[in-house]
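TASK: fixed-backbone design
INPUT:
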């Protein structure tokens, strides 16, 4: 019942949870403008169904489920009119940090949307498998499998080309 009180003042709920909701959408969609639009759509949807919130989970997790569903739906609808804007996500800082961040973003872009959502929920929001399973409407076992596949793909995407590494190693001898 305490969780129900968290969304009773929806304006305060919005202010308290917006940054996390936006980052969730951005992590899945990878386009700042579309992520902002999806976040707003998620809040509209949450507002419309707020009376059905039973308080069985924290209100932020309830909201993240709505954000994830909106983000996945937006990815399904996305056309070439909404290209990925990775460069806009990068802060102006030293070159190596920018290159690392760009590499991570490009690797995330290669993941299927549900795997990307699982990665964002696990490693950005630190949700456990059970909570991620609730949000993605799947099982904890499936979440584990999705994360394992996603991390395997990310490792491959972020590793330097083994052929190039061999050439460099051979040249240094």
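OUTPUT:
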């Amino acid at each position: 019942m305490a969780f129900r009180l968290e969304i009773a003042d929806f304006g305060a709920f919005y202010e308290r949870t917006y940054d996390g909701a936006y980052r969730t959408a951005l992590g899945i969609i990878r386009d700042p403008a579309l992520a902002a639009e999806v976040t707003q759509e998620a809040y509209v949807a949450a507002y419309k169904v707020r009376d059905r919130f039973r308080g069985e989970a924290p209100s932020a997790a309830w909201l993240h489920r709505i954000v994830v569903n909106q983000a996945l739906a937006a990815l399904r609808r996305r056309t070439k009119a909404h290209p990925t804007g990775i460069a806009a996500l990068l802060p102006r800082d030293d070159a190596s940090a920018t290159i690392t961040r760009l590499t991570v973003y490009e690797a995330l872009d290669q993941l299927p949307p549900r795997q990307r959502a699982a990665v964002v929920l696990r490693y950005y929001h630190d949700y456990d498998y059970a909570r991620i399973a609730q949000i993605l409407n799947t099982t904890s076992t499936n979440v584990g499998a999705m994360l394992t596949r996603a991390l395997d793909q990310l490792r491959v995407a972020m590793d330097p080309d083994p052929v190039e590494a061999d050439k460099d190693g051979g040249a240094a001898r």
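COMMENT: The chain is about 75% helix and 0% strand.
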